[in-house]
Specification:
Layout: H1 2-6, H2 10-27, H3 35-83, H4 90-110, H5 117-128, H6 137-149, H7 151-161, H8 167-186, H9 193-217, H10 229-236
Helix pairs in contact: 2-9, 3-6, 3-7, 3-8, 3-9, 3-10, 4-5, 4-10, 8-9
């Protein structure tokens, strides 16, 4: 359900939220706020901005790092594929290429930390236990070295994927967000329709910020859509290219 919720475009959310809050502001009673209450709301709003901004920036940086490491790994896998050309035994050549292809397809399909772990272990096992007396042993060893070197990319990818916002951080964000959102909802702006529209827009915008953070955190934001392009390009080009696809 969450994935379906996050797939909706942000522009659609703004319209829906604006209509919702515009209606809500018309029916909710408006209590009289004391100066101390307004001070508390002001402090909370400052804390929300102070806490929210680095959280969003960190997740955007995470997406950029994921894009770089996925492309680096795609280039490494492309080079590994090239190294298999030195294997003269067609049966061995095809088997190793298939294992590499299975790993790449698993990564693109799963798109999560540890993706393709089973396929990668199978590939490494095949290379490690290759017959040392085989005529292509040197060529296979070259492939094995490249596969082992690529493990650094896999580790970096898993670590970066794991840098999500933790549940305790969500609790803090949601608490600060709820109190911040409450101010424009309960404050009495009188009978001025313009101020009602402004308040509804402010509430919709605040909520949209939180939804944006959710989408970025779960890698469904527009900014994250292209990070898997290099690996997808490898598959679509039959492992002949790592050029990014056009969005």
């Amino acid at each position: 359900m969450l994935k379906a919720f996050l797939k909706v475009r942000l522009s659609y959310y703004f319209v829906i939220l604006f209509i919702f809050f515009a209606g809500l502001l018309m029916i909710l009673p408006k209590p009289t706020l004391s100066s101390s209450a307004l001070t508390l709301f002001s402090i909370n709003s400052f804390l929300f901005g102070f806490y929210f901004t680095p959280s969003l920036n960190n997740q955007k940086a995470r997406i950029e790092e994921l894009g770089k490491v996925i492309r680096t790994q795609s280039v490494a896998l492309f080079k590994i594929m090239v190294k298999t050309r030195k294997i003269s035994d067609r049966k061995v050549h095809d088997k190793i290429q298939k294992l590499i292809a299975d790993y790449i397809k698993a990564c693109v399909k799963e798109k999560k930390a540890g993706c393709g772990e089973k396929e990668y272990d199978k590939l490494v096992g095949e290379l490690v236990h290759f017959d040392v007396k085989h005529k292509d042993c040197d060529a296979v060893d070259g492939v094995l070295d490249a596969v082992v070197d690529n493990q650094t990319n896999r580790t970096t990818f898993d670590m970066t994927m794991g840098r999500k916002i933790y549940s305790n951080e969500w609790y803090v964000l949601l608490t600060l967000f709820s109190v911040t959102l409450a101010l424009p909802i309960i404050v009495d702006v009188g009978g001025n329709p313009i101020l009602h529209i402004v308040a509804a827009m402010l509430c919709a915008t605040l909520t949209l910020l939180l939804i944006t953070l959710l989408k970025v955190n779960f890698l469904v934001h527009k900014k994250a859509k292209g990070i898997w392009n290099p690996m997808e390009s490898l598959i679509e080009s039959d492992f002949r290219s790592v050029d990014d696809k056009e969005d």
